[in-house]
Structure formats: C-alpha cells, structure tokens
User: Fold Halorhodopsin from Halobacterium jilantaiense.
Amino acid sequence: MPTSGVEVATDASLLAAQSSAVDAIRDDALLSSSLWVNVALAGVAVLLFVYMGRNVRSPRARFVWGATLLIPLVSISSYLGLLSGLTVGFLEMPAGHALAGEEVLSQWGRYLTWALSTPMILLALGLLADVDRGSLFTVIAADVGMCVTGLAAAMTTSSVLFRWAFYAISCAFFAVVLYALLTEWTAAAADAGTDEIFQTLRVLTVVLWLGYPIIWAVGVEGLALVESVGVTSWGYSVLDIFAKYVFAFLLLRWVADNEQTVAAAGSTLGTAPGDD
Assistant:
C-alpha cells in the first residue's frame, strides 16, 4: 500500500525526536555515564546469576531464581532503550512548574522498566516468605499501579496540579506495598523459616524504594530543586544498582546455599487450597 504524506511526516518527526534525544544524552557526560554503567552492570549480573543458579534444582527455588534473573534482563533492555532515544523525549513543563515553559528531557522509559522489574522483586520476596496468592496478587497489582501513575505524573504537561495528583496516587499505591512488606509478609517469612534473609532484603528494599519518590520530588520532574537531568539520572541509577543487582545477588546467594529451606517453606503458589 502507498504510504500517505501524514505517515511519512509522522515517521520523520519520530526519527528526528529520537535523534535529538540521543544527541542530548551523548552531549551530557553525566547523563550518558549513568546509563552505560547500568548496561554494563546488568550484563555482568545476568551472567553471574545464570552461573549462581546452575545447581538449583527444586521447583520453588528455581521459581525464585527465574524471577530474580528477569530483574537485570529487563534492566539492560530498558537502559538500552534510554540510550537509543526510544524511551526518552522532550516535554514542556506546564505553568506553575519551576521550569515552566522549558523543555526537559524525560526518561519516561524508566517507569516501564520499574513496572516490569519491581513486580519480579516482589514475586521473589513473596515466594521467599511463602505468602498466599491473594496477598501476592494485591501487592504486585499495587506496585504496577504505583509505576503507571508515576509515569502519568512524569508525562502530564497540561497542568502541574495533575502531575502532583498522579504523584500522590502513586505514593498511595506505594504505601500498600510498604505495609505488606513491613507487616504481613514479615510474619509469613518467620513462619516459613526464611525470616533472616527476608529481613535483610526487606530493609534494603524499603529504604531504597523510598528514594525514588524523593528523587522525583526534588528533581526536574517535581520541584526542580535539582535542575540537572544528569544528576537526577545518576540518583535513579544508583538506586537501581542496589535495589536490583545487589538485592538479587544477596537473594540468589542465600537461595543457592539454603535450597532445602526454600523448598520446605511451603508451596502456596503451586498448591490448591486445602491441599497438603
């Protein structure tokens, strides 16, 4: 079929936007380095985690390992998307924003990454703690809602009020996740006999995840107290390094050394209600 002039113009505009984004990233050494470091670390993490899981045999432990392996796999794809200009773009900040009328480079692809990688983190933690299906579904659903409304907050350019409204909703979803990690899931881990490692991972997750909304609030997308996109990007990248790769390493090392404990913790996800 012949291509219409509108389609050609749209394609050209999209290519130009990606090219401009790539140029902006390349010209900002701080921004560029914050992305390439994570590509390298995610690649190393994938290879390391494959090696660490080579001798894992029990179905439950392999389930945990598979969920954890997806974390760096999603991350490396995401960071390549940012570097290629595919998942970044320039947005004009609305009236009332500290940078009103200015175009800001938005790394909106990060939210897509978090919507895919953070559920894997929670799935691994839920399996480790042997939580019930209903709780696991609710917490993961809240997590996805947190990421999607965070994306809405970052992408809304019509009103600064709507940006902060989406931010508040995202934080409300986050509160659901925090509540489960700090109460119900902690108790379940104690019953499952995995509370020692769960406590460590819980603290790591809660403390680091609290950093994301703080960076949003003080960075270019929020109050713009920090106007450097590169500094903001490094803030997110450092959090990703510890919340994803360090978290996954600690979890997989423990699972590899305590496979029988994981296998004996129960089979909440694989057993019908009432089965033993």
